Amino acid sequence: MSTTTQVFKQLTATINQLDIQSVSDDRKAVLQPLVDFIQTKVNAQDEIRINFICTHNSRRSHLSQVWAQTIARFLAIKDVTCYSGGTEATALFPVIAQTLKEAGFQVNLLSTGENPVHSIKYGENEPPIIGFSKRIDDAFNPSSDFAAVLTCDSANEACPFVTGATKRIPITFEDPKAFDHSPLQGEKYKERSLQIATEMLFVFSQVTH
Known about the structure:
Order of helices and strands: HHEHEHEEEEHEH
Low-confidence stretches: none
Number of domains: 1
């Protein structure tokens, strides 16, 4: 049974506009190990933990975490908890928060400083995703029984082994950072966000539950 009514209306409209037919065969092959991981957990009625990892935990890993968590709930796939981490901690880049707001998320700043903490909500009665930059092994993240999804090439190369992960899955995305402070910044961040959203929708839509 669908629970799309649990997701904010604007965000529901954004998701409904995503076209999983646009995902290329090459990308489907890259995404398939994550589909398999989730399906295996669903079949076993186990909790599904996914930690999305990039070098600085500032852009792509946060987009992946937020979209994966939201779409799992949108498609009523139970017991999914998504996390994010980096090989080092920096800060969630402010344009990420703005891009998520424009897609229909409610984003609130909980604390300021060098590494601000954000509350990112996708539904009125859903718990918020807590967005801030942290290392992979931060206490906020799982220490065992999770899939580690490497979202950038440098993290993929730097993390040939992720402690506690039962599966290591490279799913890399181009970094929108290349367009920071340029006239294309907003457009390119939105483009990357929607690519990640579309691919996460493809992943979870392949799962039988």
